[in-house]
Amino acid sequence: MSRRRNSIMSNQLKEQIAQELGFAGTLHQEGFGGVSSRDCGNMVKRAIELAERNLPKNNMTQ
Hints:
The protein is 63% helix and 0% strand. By secondary structure, it is mostly helical. It has one domain.
């Protein structure tokens, strides 16, 4: 029984972050199966950093 989950990150954001981190070529050639766990973790870490920067300032003080 296969369930497909909706992605939280858009493909465009994934590609942008992969480009910033230097493994976009691997991602395009092999998909996420060819990307190391470390690189995937760094991608998530970078996405969290971007999300935190985009939070409204008043939410950070509460």
